[in-house]
Amino acid sequence: MKKKIFITGASSGIGEYLAYAYAKKGYFIGLAARREDKLIQVASKCFELGGEAKCYTLDVTNNESCQMNIDDFISLPGEIDTIYANAGVGAPDQLNTGDSTAMNRILLTNIMGVTNTVLPFIPYFKSNKKGKVAVISSVASFRGLAHHSAYSGSKAAVRNFCQGWNNALHKYNISFSAICPGFVSSEMTDNQDNPQPFKISTNIAVDKIIKAVENRKKVYIFPWQVKLFIIPIMKWAPDWLTRLLKI
Ligand SMILES: NC(=O)c1ccc[n+]([C@@H]2O[C@H](COP(=O)([O-])OP(=O)(O)OC[C@H]3O[C@@H](n4cnc5c(N)ncnc54)[C@H](OP(=O)(O)O)[C@@H]3O)[C@@H](O)[C@H]2O)c1
Question: Is residue 20 annotated as part of the catalytic site, yes or no?
């Protein structure tokens, strides 16, 4: 039976390269994001690489649109193997403006965007008695970041959801992997001039992500240098040190 993969945020970066990796294995891929033109380009490359794809132009903050598009994806022939709740945005909190709009947009996309993506698949996975769900969290989830606390907080929230969901749905053979990348090359990171230690290519990142999800890792932090050197700082460094390091 044809295997299906659903990916949000498939129009660029990690989501786009995840789609290519699965296309090479011959999967049918549901490509979801807001930019239709980009999705169409990604879909045509998926076909070239030996896969099949269908574009779903949607905003993950819109619950009804997610439900409708996911219902369509579920109804297509084949078995859903894995879904990736990958769509996300990052931007400064803009604390000094006194306006919560910027923070709320990040929280809505990165938190409700995940629930709007994952929950519509749960009845399917439960009745199929298997399924893999990957949620793209971040290394940033391990500490409240100065000026990016909406981002770090949203990523902590979804990592926490995965832990709860794993325990709630373990008996149905549904696994949830909270993926915590360090810096990965993408539209989100490539045009910034902040230091990006241990940054890795999108291709290398997706290979690591897919392996972790296939092995049903509950939390996957990469690359190894980040796990070894950055995570301890994120978890245990005193605030004066993180202020000094501008984390
Ligand atoms: N790159 C890194 O270093 C890094 C590190 C840790 C975690 N992450 C996480 O990895 C994920 C992918 O990011 P990326 O690095 O690949 O950045 P990216 O190239 O900017 O990709 C973000 C994707 O999310 C989609 N998206 C954003 N808002 C959306 C919305 N409201 N509805 C639907 N789709 C939406 C974008 O598509 P449209 O604009 O077309 O909608 C785009 O496809 C994000 O969750 C990010 O937080 C990235």
Answer: no
- Give percent of the chain above pLDDT 70: 100
The closest-lying atom of ligand 1 relative to the alpha carbon of residue 59 is 32
- What is residue 66's predicted lDDT score, i.e. its pLDDT? 98
Run of H or E residues at 49: none
d(CA 69, CA 22): 20
Tens of pLDDT along 102-147?
Answer: 999 999 999 999 999 999 999 999 999 999 999 999 999 999 999 9
Q: In this predicted model, what pLDDT tens digit does every residue of 44-99 receive, in sequence order?
A: 999 999 999 999 999 999 999 999 999 999 999 999 999 999 999 999 999 999 99
CATH number for the domain spanning 182: value is 3.40.50.720
3-state secondary structure of 216: coil
What is the pLDDT at residue 134?
A: 98
Query: How many A from CA of 1 to the centre of ligand 1?
Result: 30
- CB atoms under 10 Å from CB of 244, counted, come to 10
| 113 exposure class (CB count in 10 Å sphere: 0-12, 13-18, 19+) | buried
**Pocket, ligand 1, Cβ cutoff 6 A:** 8-9, 11-15, 33-35, 38, 59-61, 86-90, 109, 113, 136, 138, 181, 183-184, 186-189
Q: How far is CA 24 from the centre of its chain?
A: 20
User: By residue range, what is the domain housing residue 23?
Assistant: 3-244
Q: Which of these is catalytic: 22, 27, 56, 151?
A: 151
Distance from residue 238's CA to the centre of ligand 1 (Å):
30
Contact (Cβ atoms closer than 8 angstroms) between residue 147 and residue 93: yes
Looking at the 3D structure of the chain, how many domains does it have?
1
